[in-house]
Specification:
single chain; 223 residues; mainly alpha; 7 helices; Integral membrane protein
């Protein structure tokens, strides 16, 4: 990755952290106490940590994070716009924050995808990005188990003690139970991300083919 790209992504991450701090303070102010329900460790929260950490990662890890952002990051951003609980705030400031956040997250995924297309692209990156996702799911599950007995919390929408309420997935609860609904939700994130990966791969192949053709035409013009 070029230094300017690393710096740009870091600045984006720091901006997101700044807005997240504002959101946490605003929610605490209007409710009068801190709500663990809004603890910033959701799928749509991860990009701010990953982007801010970019300068301290080596090229191998940066490539994995790029792959994560252009797949899982874009999917979670789109999902948040289609039916995330953050869209149901009563305060217009929080609604504006939620829409802006997820749109910006989709943009970051698109930008990371274009950076990835112009760098070395190891074929195993998506598998490693999936391990990043599963590791974060594990951390979220542990935090849910530790904190939930004392405070309401539902990180990654995977707390088995709270019924799934996301669009479409909540229809599975009466039929198959909450745990199956959560499993289907988590697996579908992988499926949609893999589908997004295939779109990026096809676009990358087209980009490389076009670039090779332009290089051949340039050589012919100079010969």
């Amino acid at each position: 990755m070029q230094r300017k790209d690393v710096r740009f992504l870091q600045i984006c991450g720091l901006i997101m952290i700044g807005f997240e701090i504002w959101k946490q303070l605003f929610l605490t102010y209007i409710s009068g106490h801190y709500s663990w329900w809004h603890f910033p460790f959701q799928m749509c929260s991860l990009p701010m940590y990953f982007m801010a950490a970019m300068p301290w990662l080596n090229e191998k890890h940066r490539s994995i994070i790029l792959r994560y952002m252009m797949t899982y990051g874009m999917v979670s951003g789109c999902a948040g716009l289609l039916g995330g609980t953050g869209l149901h705030y009563t305060a217009w400031q929080l609604i504006a924050h939620t829409y802006s956040w997820h749109i910006f997250q989709i943009y970051l995924g698109w930008r990371c995808g274009h950076i990835w297309m112009q760098t070395i692209r190891p074929s195993q990156d998506f598998t490693k990005a999936t391990w990043v996702y599963l590791t974060c799911c594990l951390i979220a599950g542990v935090l849910n188990a530790i904190i939930y007995p004392y405070h309401g919390i539902n990180l990654f929408n995977m707390n088995p003690a709270i019924n799934m309420d996301l669009p479409v997935y909540h229809l599975l609860v009466p039929v198959f139970g909450n745990r199956i609904a959560i499993f289907v939700y988590l697996f579908s994130c992988i499926w949609f991300s893999n589908w997004t990966k295939n779109v990026w791969t096809a676009s990358s192949n087209w980009y490389l083919s076009r670039q090779r053709q332009q290089n051949r035409e340039t050589k012919l013009d100079h010969s």
